[in-house]
Amino acid sequence: MTGQALSPDPELIQGGMGVAISGWQLARSVAETGERIGRPVLGVVSGTGLAITMVLRLRKGDSHTRRAIEAFPVPEIAQGIIERYWLNTNRSSRFRIPPKPEILVKGSDEQKTDLAKLLVVANFAEVWLARQGHSGPIGINYLEKIQLPRLPEIFGAMLGGVDYVLMGAGIPNQVPGVLDDLAGWKEASYKLDVAGSEKYVLSFDPKTLIAEQYRTPLTRPKFLAIVSHHALAQALALKATGEVDGFVVEGPIAGGHNAPARGKEISESGEPIYGERDQPDLPKIRRLGKPFWLAGGYANPEKLDEAKSMGATGIQVGSAFALCDESGLREDIKRELRRRSYSGDIRVMANPVVSPSGFPFQVVSLESSLSDPVVYGARKRSCSLGYLAEAYRTTRGGIGFRCPAEPVKAYAKKGGDAESASGRVCLCNGLAAASKDGQGTETASEPPIVTLGQDHSFIRSMLPSADGSYSAEDVIRSILSLAPSGHSEGRAALSAAGG
What fold does the segment set 12-335+461-496 form as a domain? Predict the structure, then answer.
């Protein structure tokens, strides 16, 4: 259950995307390919909402997930989760979906313990599955804005043997110290942001969950902070709670959440305008003496060479992997996006208001999705999962949670600004609905929302035709200038023949 020896650092990092888009299948395929071709490549699972996707997989009878849970070091915890969720579609069960993470603040001790177990096991299982059958490195990606479940999630990933932890969408200065503490089986703490700049301290002691006879040595994973600017990289290098092992420098055209622009200008299409002040000074990052990777429009050999010429160790690539065979994106959505990318009629907008986090979020314009104003207007606003909810101090002095994507009246009653709720989307449900694991579940009632980066020039180097497909290995071989695997042409022929 310890991580692998890590040498050298990867030259290609697969992005950790969405809810179950970068699942264990994709990360494992990436790591296997790197091992097979003898090049340092990092497979990454998305850590967002893993407790939800684990439960949904168990309810569908997914044998891989069950096998991973049965490998968890504490048999009683594993068996309890299997008994509760395996093939259990009973709507009258205590929780139709895992409870909101706010229970970790507001719940009873028993509820807090139950949810912590679920979070630990879910992250363990995803990493454990990604690591099977090879010795390549595996990472996990988290959003700093999702703070409530952070401690048990990281611990679960470490139990599973994760080699790298990557985190952006905020200032992840607390994570290095958390990794240090958990690696030593010490109690770790995390300061939760509360509206009004106040902090609430969350704590997690792994020894209360894992009895002594089940404890084994843990290896501290490397920590890579995802940043957009040299100023944040400098601050993290100097002031983080422990060692930051490197940086992923992500540009504004990368998919998912982006850093807000420093200016307030908005384009005619409604997108934030990024200017000179938003450009990172790469020589300043290089002088920090840490490896760094560039992300956002780098999915080709020329851009990899360019990144290395600027002192980068390599690149991070997301969208090309999001559209490959092994990604967890729904097949119908994946086919349509590949077709549109190939023909050049795909539209991705950096929407400044859609995410409850307040960060700009890249949204693909797609019929029957939440990017369609008609679909958005017809949906019922909700906040059933609560991962991006904001903590605030109630009038009675307690901690409450609100989300600008929930019903406006409820949000305003909790002290939220009703005007700021306009245009918001429940990303938790919307992103889950865009994944294979979100189909046929409670999340399916929410229309999907789809994110990609704004650069799709990679697609024609991997697809022989608009109706073809390609693998994670094809992505890696294309970017690293290796001979094609020969698989893409066969898949395209099968597609054309209706296979």
Answer: TIM Barrel (3.20.20)
